[in-house]
Amino acid sequence: MAKSKNDYLTVSTYNAILHRQLQRDMNQLLIKDKLPVNITEMYLMVLILESQPISQRRASTTLAVDEGLMTRMVKHLTSLGLIHKEAAVRDRRVKELTLTEDGEKLLDYALAQFNKWWE
User: Fold this and answer.
1) Is there a contact between 72 and 7 (Cβ–Cβ < 8 Å)?
2) Reported pTM
3) What domain of life does the UniProt record list for this protein's source (predicted)?
């Protein structure tokens, strides 16, 4: 049991290190290209692209970020014109997120840069 616990901790530690390294490298690419978003906002935009419309609460849960951070990201991305936030037709309390045309363009460009980084 102790051996498997240590193996789990080792794998978890390496996974966390790789994740932080990826985030740092991706944020550096975004800064280098003078893109106005960070990697967490990019994750949100990809999620919206794949699931649109998606509720703000579901996006928060899916990305495992607290609702305060999600609110700040949504405000930032809407102020840049990259996403659109609208009350759902069925329940006006639910806020649905979709990408704008500018958001799709930025996402296409950024993902192409990430793919070059992987090569």
Assistant:
1) no
2) 0.81
3) Bacteria
Tokens 């975004």 label which residue?
A: 30
Residue pair 87/57 in contact (Cβ under 8 Å)? The answer is no
Alpha-carbon radius of gyration of the chain: 17
Amino acid at 76: H
Tokens of 4: 């498997």
Secondary structure class of 8 (helix, strand, coil): helix
**What integer pLDDT is reported at residue 22 of this predicted model?**
79
Nearest to 89 by CA among 53, 40, 45: 53
Domain ranges, ordered by start, for the chain: 2-118
Element (H, E) at 99: strand 95-99
Fold held by 2-118: Arc Repressor Mutant, subunit A (1.10.10)
| pLDDT over 70 at 2, yes or no | no
